[in-house]
Amino acid sequence: MGSQDIEMSNGFDYCQEYKGLQVLHAHHQIKELQTILRDKNTSRSDFKFYADRLIRLVIEESLNQLPFTDCKVVTPTGATYNGLKYRSGNCGVSIVRSGESMEQGLRDCCRSIRIGKILVESDADTHEARVVYARFPEDIAQRHVLLMYPIMSTGNTVSKAVHVLKEHGVKQECIILSNLFCTPQAVQTVLDAYPKIKILTSEVHPVAPNHFGQKYFGTD
Amino acid sequence: MAAKINTLDPPSSASSDSDIEETQADFSEVFPDCEIEEEKSGDFYNTPASPITVPYCPRPPSTGSQKSPRSRRQRTSSLNQAAKKTAAECIIRTQHRTIYTAGRPPWYNSEGQKVEPFVIGICGGSASGKTTVAEKIIESLGVPWVTLLSMDSFYKVLNEKQHEIADKNEYNFDHPDAFDFDLLISTLQRLKEGRKVEVPIYNFVTHSRETRTKTMYGANVIIFEGILTFHNTKVNEMLDMKIFVDTDADVRLARRLRRDISERGRDLDGVLKQYTSMVQPSFNHYIAPLMSHADIIVPRGGENEVAIQLIVQHVQTQLQLRGLKLREELAQAYAINKQPRPDTVKLLPTTPQIRGLHTFIRNKDTPRDEFIFYSKRLIRLVIEYTLSLMTFVDKTVETPQGVLYHGKRMATGNICGVSILRAGETMEQAVCDVCKDIRIGKILIQTNLQTGEPELYYLRLPKDIKDYKVILMDATVATGAAAMMAIRVLLDHDVLESNILIVSLLMAESGVQSIAYAFPKVQIVTTAIDPEINDKFYVLPGIGNFGDRYFGTEPSEY
């Protein structure tokens, strides 16, 4: 799908550099969603509608990263289908506030998945990120974690969140970051600090659409 | 006779005025899930797929002005073999399932190409019994789908002066100039091509066409009847068989007298005057000579059983030669020659998610709520994928961050969805979720349990559908017979073949092949392709009956 140059422009070249980075297949239609979200003239209702579509696609793709085992089932026609079964023991963690916009998308795919939350604030003076609030399922250390945060520009917030998860005993290789837009710098910051986590995004671009959270929740 | 057919015509239609309540009840009883609306909104073709009857279309006043409103002779109509049965006979009940028979069977062959209908022209003087002959032929033919087109629909619109003449019983309705042959030829041509036509409804009181028209479709057999059927050479070329009904002048006059006096309350002198001054001379001048064009001349009209049997035998032989055993042929065609999968087939990348979702919905033990949930997810994925197949153009936008962003925009704004009832309906929600304010049309196709063939029952499409990219939705495609019928319907509504995408969750290899080779420009989108179909035309390993599982209408035992 999609020609090479478009894939490049969406950040596929960074994938070669970082094993942990994966960029959504750049269909033109995904590009259209990104265009609408970045356009400053997009109305809020359109913005939310198309953001939800893009989130759904990113979440569906993130779920592909989760572990599964093969299994056989019998179909109503009596034939056998070689399918697969996802392992249970996953959970979502959203980073407040913009990460919460992705919770619904995850709920739409996994009805009863547990969802934890982290609130990270950056200090007004030092710009250092600090964790204000964190609440996870008790057994998070045994789970695969889908960390949700749509816009990554510096990577500090996510680094901090991953740090908290590690403190709770989550293994690096069990963390998958679901992200819509990120900058090359953020990818570098996060993956240099935590090389084993996986980042799944729809676009790597030097300019991040930082208005996302405000426009999505309507607080601008 | 005609009136009788009208009232008994069960699956009739949106536009027939008399039977609406009945029809609605029938449909809603049988398909409680599908909403049958009868509103005549201008935005939609409101078209019954199955037999079409004409609303009130009075007998033409070859007899002069109309005095009695009682004469409801039904002329132009499509009718169905089942029309002669009672409504109850058209419903088959098996294993607690109710199935409505009598839709429109295939009108194209396994390559998706239309099989030309057999067109029978019936000509003869007024009151010679043309309609009776036509009805007898239909009755004996046993063909499920017949369209009866009457020349009466094509009378010219009269201007004021002609109107006055007509009021004085002096306008000659039996003269060739009274007919609009251009419109007639184009209508017949389109019918012969199997396309949808709008047949005018002529009002014999105002001598003009009503704003409403009658929607008709081509059929396996088209019967065209009228007093001057063979007058135009172009029309003659389109007729596969020409029948002249030759009834004695005395008999015809006697019939006219009885009809006009007792049924229409006209006086003897007026009728006789009109007969001698116009009807009789026109017959001698224009109609009688047409006998030389005829293949068969039927003396004594409808009473002539021998002649009608001969005609029917000939037509049946002709129809058999054109053969329509679609589904079987489709299933076999693939087994014989396996061809490479064409590039119009777009299979979603088989990610673990897609396989995982398939595992849920294919498992026969999956409870219905999970089945619905996971099907919806899969549907969403396939619809999103479908949108990525549209044409896109470059677009540069300004961002709040102050930089320009070079992105894409969909080139076509006009996308509409059309679902094939019932399983396709499950996909409508997903289309609405990804395309704001999208228009959704519906096509109802059911399999006739006796013949195993798909039949078209109902359709409702956006009015200007020819300008749209159409996402045609059906949950599963086995032989491809229903999908092909739906595509054929869209093409008959002038949708470009390259503007059609057929989208489904699961297809059988043979169905994919049949559709792809029949309609090489139609894009086929699916999440999985299974290798085979069983003798009941279910996909293997398959999902089972998707619609039944989704809507919870499975029969208690498989």
UniProtKB/TrEMBL annotation, chain A:
Gene3D superfamilies: 3.40.50.2020. It is found in: Cytoplasm; Nucleus. GO terms for molecular function: GTP binding. InterPro entries: PRTase-like (IPR029057), PRTase_dom (IPR000836). Residues 26-205 form the Phosphoribosyltransferase domain. It comes from the Eukaryota. The keyword Ion transport does not apply. One of its GO terms (cellular component) is cytoplasm. Keywords: Cytoplasm, GTP-binding, Nucleotide-binding, Nucleus. Belongs to the UPRTase family. This is Uracil phosphoribosyltransferase homolog. It comes from Rhamnusium bicolor.
Automatic annotation (TrEMBL), chain B:
Its EC number is 2.7.1.48. It comes from Rhamnusium bicolor. It is an enzyme of class 2 (transferase). Pathway: Pyrimidine metabolism; CTP biosynthesis via salvage pathway; CTP from cytidine: step 1/3; Pyrimidine metabolism; UMP biosynthesis via salvage pathway; UMP from uridine: step 1/1. GO terms for molecular function: ATP binding; uridine kinase activity. Residues 119-307 form the Phosphoribulokinase/uridine kinase domain. This is Uridine kinase. GO terms for cellular component: cytoplasm; nucleus. Belongs to the uridine kinase family. GO terms for biological process: pyrimidine-containing compound salvage. Residues 1-85 are annotated as: Disordered. Keywords: ATP-binding, Cytoplasm, Kinase, Nucleotide-binding, Nucleus, Phosphoprotein, Transferase, Ubl conjugation. It is found in: Cytoplasm; Nucleus. Residues 349-553 form the Phosphoribosyltransferase domain. Its main location: cytoplasm. Interacts with RNF19B. It catalyses: cytidine + ATP = CMP + ADP + H(+); uridine + ATP = UMP + ADP + H(+). It comes from the Eukaryota. May contribute to UTP accumulation needed for blast transformation and proliferation. InterPro entries: P-loop_NTPase, PRK/URK, PRTase-like, PRTase_dom, Uridine_kinase-like.
